[in-house]
């Protein structure tokens, strides 16, 4: 049987080292030898002896945060030995290596998978909640390990060496040490009173030293049911497990 479909670029990529790597720009491969965490529903194929366990909302010590960030079981633990392939709506997948001392704040809807060696917490984004429900709560990851994120299109990485402003729905992740807030981009005037709008009423502001990853899309993530904030809160609630 012959076809361009069977070209080398489409064949499974093998490695002698366990861990996560890109199968292609839209798909993540985890060569599992132990445990990893992934977004519920993101598995598209697997080989070997792999178990999938849905995670709950956490213990009593995290009850308050769980109530703030919503309910649901959006994360699953992968355990065993084998190859697991993950993807989400054909979005672009990117792998970030965190070193000790690093801290990364990520919009919950962009988290695809991460090593179980990483630590994470849920924090309210300062000022951003007043501008948009998107990014009201973010996942802050620390430790040593890899995390895979998704973007809707090819992103740009902005170096925050000057005051920086980003649409809240386009901001994917940023250095956790940056100061965030909100900024009114649209000028008030007679046109505003008459109902005219640029569509850019508020943006997130970033200050300090670090970077911001911006995707070329301002569309909220596609959800199956419920509001965007409730569903995103569900993901963050699962991260509290």
Task: Provide a descriptive summary of the structure in words.
It contains three helices and 16 strands. The longest helix is centred in the last third of the chain and has 12 residues. About 20% of the residues have low confidence.
Give the key terms:
globular; six-stranded antiparallel beta sheet; mainly beta; 16 strands; 241 residues
Order of helices and strands: EEEHEEEEEEEEEEEHEEH
Give a quick account of the main beta sheet: strands, pairing sense, barrel closure.
7 strands, antiparallel
Q: Average pLDDT value?
A: 77
Catalogue the unreliable spans. 57-64, 66-73, 130-135, 188-198, 221-234
Oligomer: single chain
Distance linking N and C termini: 48 Å
Number of H/I helices: 3
Estimated radius of gyration: 19 Å
Morphology: globular
Task: Write a compact overview of the structure shown.
The protein has 241 residues and is mainly β.
Chain-wise SSE layout:
Layout: E1 19-24, E2 27-39, E3 43-54, H1 63-69, E4 75-86, E5 92-98, E6 103-107, E7 111-115, E8 119-124, E9 137-142, E10 145-151, E11 156-160, E12 164-166, E13 171-175, E14 179-184, H2 190-193, E15 202-207, E16 210-214, H3 228-239
Helix pairs in contact: 1-3
């Amino acid at each position: 049987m012959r076809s361009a479909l069977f070209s080398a670029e489409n064949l499974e990529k093998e490695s002698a080292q366990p861990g996560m790597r890109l199968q292609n720009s839209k798909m993540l491969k985890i060569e599992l030898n132990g445990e990893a965490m992934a977004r519920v529903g993101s598995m598209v194929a697997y080989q070997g002896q792999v178990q999938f366990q849905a995670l709950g909302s956490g213990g009593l010590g995290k009850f308050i945060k769980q109530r703030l960030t919503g309910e649901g079981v959006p994360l699953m633990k992968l355990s065993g030995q084998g190859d697991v392939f993950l993807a989400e709506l054909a979005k672009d997948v990117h792998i970030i290596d965190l070193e000790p001392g690093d801290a990364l704040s990520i919009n919950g809807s962009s988290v695809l998978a991460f090593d179980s060696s990483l630590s994470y917490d849920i924090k309210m984004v300062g000022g951003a909640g007043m501008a948009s429900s998107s990014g009201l709560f973010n996942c802050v990851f620390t430790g040593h390990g890899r995390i895979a994120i998704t973007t809707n299109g090819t992103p740009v990485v902005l170096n925050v060496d000057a005051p920086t402003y980003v649409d809240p729905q386009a901001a994917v992740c940023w250095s956790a040490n940056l100061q965030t807030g909100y900024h009114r981009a649209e000028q008030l005037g007679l046109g505003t009173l008459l109902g005219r709008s640029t569509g850019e009423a508020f943006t997130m502001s970033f200050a300090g030293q670090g970077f911001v990853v911006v995707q070329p899309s301002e569309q909220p993530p596609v959800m199956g049911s419920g509001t965007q904030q409730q569903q995103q809160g569900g993901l963050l609630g699962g991260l509290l497990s």
